[in-house]
Design a protein that fits this description.
single chain, 303 residues, mainly alpha, three-stranded mixed β-sheet, 11 helices
């Protein structure tokens, strides 16, 4: 059983607090590279140092910004691995899946399913109302974007999954000795960390329903499937295809994507439809493909 693999008498909860602090510290170290690059450039070129988050994120070309932002997750991923191995004396496999080895077919299926859905719905939106989009494709910047995104986005998304659906899911299970509390808390924390995204300022706090709902969806498929493979594939597809396919001025990261969305975002269909319709549909597809059963026990049972 996946979540139980980290529930051991020696895995005291203070170890997860210590491990979380180490992971946060590694994340800050990774972000220093971005700050140092801006400091060096502003000093050498006599530019004013940016004083707002928007100015920081638009200081460099979007490809360089993306590279520097994503590279920080390399440090964080190394920290996650070190914390699991050195503090908790676990294998990285034990916080990935309950299977004897990582099931790459599951990752590929989830990635392919969500990639196809994202591409199809984006193209339908474009053909339905092209005035909402600008064709943004530039071969060389896009090629550079593709290399950066393909190499680093999976590290970023995997890092987040290992922290929330792996490490913290098992950590809160050690504390609560049940499954509903880890699912609830990791979903709330995952969603809440998106609160300072520019999307929240643009659309409003109601978009937190989508972020927290996504956290619940990823937590549910992890618990039901006894491993993170489906969550790893979904998250990678969501961020990678999103970065390559469409960007907008009000998103956290702008990219040299194929399309640019110039429509005015709203807090209606875009927020509730994925949570209330698409995610339940995906749960149904996964449950039929992988023969899930005993939902109540797997999502709320005691350990």
């Amino acid at each position: 059983m996946f979540i139980e693999q980290g529930v051991k008498p020696e895995n005291h909860f203070w170890k997860y607090i210590l491990g979380s602090l180490a992971i946060i510290f590694a994340s800050f170290v990774g972000q220093i590279i971005f700050v140092a690059a801006i400091l060096y450039d502003s000093f050498s070129s006599k530019k004013l140092y940016p004083t707002t988050n928007d100015a920081v994120m638009s200081y460099f070309d979007s490809n360089l910004t993306l590279l520097l932002v994503l590279f920080s997750f390399v440090f964080t991923m190394i920290a996650v691995y070190g914390v699991v191995r050195l503090i908790h004396k676990q294998t990285i496999l034990s916080v990935t899946t309950s299977r004897n080895k990582v099931d790459w077919k599951r990752i590929i299926f989830s990635f392919s399913l969500w990639s196809a859905f994202t591409i199809i719905t984006t193209l339908l939106s474009y053909f339905y109302d092209p005035t909402n989009f600008i064709f943004n494709f530039k071969p060389i910047p896009f090629a550079i974007l593709a290399v950066i995104a393909i190499l680093l986005v999976p590290i970023q998304t995997s890092c987040e999954e290992y922290i929330f659906r792996g490490y913290l899911m098992q950590g809160f299970a050690n504390l609560a000795k049940n499954k509903w509390f880890p699912l609830l808390l990791t979903s709330l924390i995952f969603g809440s960390l998106h609160y300072f995204n520019p999307e929240v300022a643009k659309v409003g706090p109601i978009i937190m329903v989508y972020y927290i709902g996504t956290g619940f969806f990823l937590g549910i498929i992890t618990l039901m499937d006894e491993g993170m493979e489906l969550a790893l594939g979904f998250h990678a597809a969501n961020n990678l295809i999103g970065a390559l396919l469409v960007t907008a001025d009000w998103t956290a990261l702008q990219t040299h994507s194929i399309f640019k969305d110039i429509s005015e975002p709203s807090a209606g269909y875009e927020v509730f439809f994925p949570v209330l319709v698409i995610f339940p549909l995906l749960l149904f597809i996964f449950s039929k493909k992988y023969n899930w059963n005993n939902w109540k026990e797997k999502l709320t049972g005691k350990i």
